[in-house]
């Protein structure tokens, strides 16, 4: 019998049912607020840590925030489909593109362009997926807060585990992905 070790998932598994504040990483639990939104909580907890003296890079690493811009930020997907999976998220808590201010929408697309370049530099993928799921019926896991998924893809990158066992196998830890993507954005 083969064993698949995923020790980085213990934090999620052990807190899954008790986590009343979605999106608040264990390293940032000192933040006591709750916006009832994984994306709003993520940024608020990181900002609170920075305001209370934690170095910005350390707070962003704990929150998996790879890049901050004026209207949007880029963060890792904590439960990625593949290594490198990021999301471009507006700071504004809005569920549709129609609600998004024009400047925020333009910046979101600019960050998508930067993300494509960062993927090509960091992962050398053979393809890239970008996707918006607007509304629950479209498959949005967080329907009330718009976010653009971006992930690198490779020919032949299929695995029977996803199909038969509903399990993803990822070759890279999130802390490695965070550094790789942070470094790739830094040179763009």
Please supply descriptive tags for the structure shown above.
single chain, 188 residues, alpha+beta, HIT family, subunit A, 5-stranded antiparallel beta sheet, globular
Helix/strand layout:
Layout: H1 10-15, H2 38-51, H3 56-63, E1 65-68, E2 72-76, E3 86-90, H4 102-122, E4 127-132, E5 148-153, H5 160-165, H6 174-186
Antiparallel strand pairs: 1-2, 2-3, 3-5, 4-5
Helix pairs in contact: 2-3, 4-6
The CATH class is Alpha Beta
Strand order of the largest sheet: 1-2-3-5-4
According to DSSP, the number of beta strands is 5
The oligomerization state is single chain
Number of domains: 1
The description of the largest β-sheet is: 5 strands, antiparallel
Secondary-structure content class? alpha+beta
**Tally of individual helices:** 6
**Cα radius of gyration in angstroms:** 17 Å
| Percent range of helical residues | 25-40%
CATH topology: HIT family, subunit A
The termini sit apart by 45 Å
- CATH homology superfamily name: HIT-like
Structure description:
- The model has no long low-confidence stretch (mean pLDDT 86).
- Helix content is 36%, strand content 14%.
- It has a five-stranded antiparallel β-sheet, sandwiched between helices.
- It is globular.
- The chain has one domain: HIT-like (HIT family, subunit A, 2-Layer Sandwich).
- The chain is an alpha+beta fold.
- The longest helix is centred in the middle third of the chain and has 21 residues, at 102-122.
- The chain starts with 9 loop residues before the first helix and ends with a helix.
């Amino acid at each position: 019998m083969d064993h698949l070790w995923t020790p980085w998932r213990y934090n999620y598994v052990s807190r899954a049912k008790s986590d009343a504040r979605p999106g608040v990483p264990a390293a940032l639990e000192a933040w006591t607020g709750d916006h009832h939104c994984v994306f709003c909580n993520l940024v608020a907890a990181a900002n609170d840590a920075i305001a209370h003296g934690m170095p910005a890079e350390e707070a962003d690493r704990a929150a998996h925030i790879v890049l901050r811009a004026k209207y949007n930020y880029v963060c890792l997907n904590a439960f990625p489909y593949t290594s490198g999976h990021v999301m471009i998220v507006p700071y504004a808590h809005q569920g549709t593109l129609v609600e998004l201010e024009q400047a925020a929408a333009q910046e979101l697309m600019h960050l998508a362009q930067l993300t494509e370049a960062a993927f090509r530099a960091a992962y050398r993928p053979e393809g890239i997926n970008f996707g918006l799921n607007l509304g629950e019926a479209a498959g949005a896991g967080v329907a009330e807060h718009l976010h653009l998924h971006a992930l690198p893809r490779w020919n032949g990158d299929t695995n029977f585990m996803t199909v038969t066992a509903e399990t993803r196998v990822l070759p890279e830890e999130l802390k490695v992905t965070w550094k790789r993507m942070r470094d790739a954005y830094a040179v763009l």
